[in-house]
Amino acid sequence: MAASIREEAAISRTSVPEENNGARRRRRLPLAWGNATDCGRGGWSRQTNTLSGVTPGYNSQPERTTAGTTPRFARSRARTDRSVARGSSHPFQGSVKEHSIAVGLSHAMLAAPEWAFDPLVDACGRALGARPGWLWPLVDGILDVYRRPPRDAHRELARWIEASTAFRGAIEAAREAGRSIALAHLETIPASMGPTPLTVPSIAGLGELADFLGVSPGQLDWLTDTAHFNRRTPRGRLHHYSYDWLVRPGRAPRLLEVPTPRMRRVQRRVLREILTALPLNDAAHGFVPGRSAVTGAAAHAGAETVITLDLQNFFARVPAQRVYSVFRQAGYPEAVAHALTGLCTHAVPPWVGARMPVGGSLEDRLALKQAISGSHLPQGSPTSPALSNLSVRRVDTRLNGWAAASGAAYTRYADDLAFSGEGLRGRAAATFIAGVARIVLDEGHLLNESKTRISGRGARQSVTGLVVNDGVAVDRLYFDELKAILHNCAVHGPHGQNRAQHADFRAHLLGRLAWVESVSPSRGVRLRREFDRIDWS
């Protein structure tokens, strides 16, 4: 009986036999070749449906694979999964009662003594108090997707059950017959870390996370603010961020979101103990120990053509779903990843956007307001730089593949993209940039077209403010301007030279001096002599 039902579930699909826990299993084989914008993703994808994550407020990214759990839909093409990446609701989302039944079945399966067909059917039968026929195709489908038990993702498993054809069919059949499906028994399952090769702290539950961060469970709930209390209330002492708009002539203003000392202390612990242990793409040079703007620019020194592009509203366009995906990839269970995401993202209250100063085009201002109104990486948080790099690892992989296909080099410093190589001129450059734009848009970001630059050898080639025509050097105008300021400070005193009204003019000059010294130590020595002549008394 069981065999016949399972065989019927496999009708009308191409399949080959596969051994799984001693039983004859079947798996789907349809593959589809990707196009040029799929460079860096293996060139092919499996055309299957993907399901949103079930953590409230956040959805699992399509590329997420939990260590020890390899759902096949995780390898689907991003173009197929854009609804998931945007965090949309799944079309098969049912009622609260139906979801509770799916949760009960997921608990029963994860509590089964063995991740195999018969034990899973038996476990579901105990949960329902009966063994209806739709359990067989349901379990068959689950084993087709999850080769191992997703012990750190029980809510994801519940969402898969809720959206499955077998479960939806059973619900509809019961409704038409005037019956109902109910749970007879609910298993409890302990939270656990997913297996991971990374050297990150093991945190299995919210209690352990609170202990790890040195706060009480109540304080953790307050700091994570997953209910968006801060966004829905007027300014007050309980808010976790203060806000400062920076006016930029001719451009949209920039919003600094500065965390409170308590929040900053917690975020620094997350950065120091968790985020620094996670691997990055080699193309990333910003906010990475041992790398800098100099190392990123050096990759393009002496190139025939240099193309530089800029990502618009970079931090604000990294949504909570991407951040949640980073923590899930690190092996943290859903509840812990959800809390860590709440600690590291923020949704700006409407009254902050209403106070946006003038500047920039209407389109740019609306795009910025929309980005900051949702949960995003706050610019001013100590965790945001590292998480921005981690959240765009796939962007870096795809752009690196796109560049390699054209024989070009690629680096990224924060939101600054740089490419260099031969033959990137005229129509070839336009085609290349169009491919970059498609990849960037496909991953949820936008290019700032006003900052796109194409520079040949006959022009000044600049990457992150450094000239790379012949080696890496500080821009001559920048050097001469700083030298003149230091000379005037030494001759006439520093107080009359602070025309930009910097709060700490001495620290400002030291920062600019250190920048030159890091790029060109010999030229930095000359400027250091001028600085040492300044009388700051």
From TrEMBL:
Principal EC category: transferase
The protein's name in its UniProt record: RNA-directed DNA polymerase
Keyword Membrane in record: no
Family of this protein: Belongs to the bacterial reverse transcriptase family.
Species annotation: Agreia bicolorata
EC nos: 2.7.7.49
GO terms for biological process, alphabetical: defense response to virus
Ranges for domain Reverse transcriptase: 227-468
Compositional bias ranges of the Basic and acidic residues kind: 1-10
One function term, GO molecular function aspect: metal ion binding
Chain residue ranges for the region called Disordered: 1-23, 40-93
Reaction catalyzed: DNA(n) + a 2'-deoxyribonucleoside 5'-triphosphate = DNA(n+1) + diphosphate
Alphabetical list of CDD domains matching this protein: RT_Bac_retron_II
Top-level lineage group: Bacteria
InterPro entries associated with the record: DNA/RNA_pol_sf, GrpII_Intron_Splice-Mob/Def, Reverse_transcriptase_msDNA, RT_dom
Skewed-composition ranges (Polar residues): 45-69
Keyword annotations from UniProtKB, A to Z: Antiviral defense, Magnesium, Metal-binding, Nucleotidyltransferase, RNA-directed DNA polymerase, Transferase
SUPFAM superfamilies registered for this protein in UniProt: DNA/RNA polymerases
Upper lineage: Bacteria, Bacillati, Actinomycetota, Actinomycetes, Micrococcales
Pfam families: RVT_1
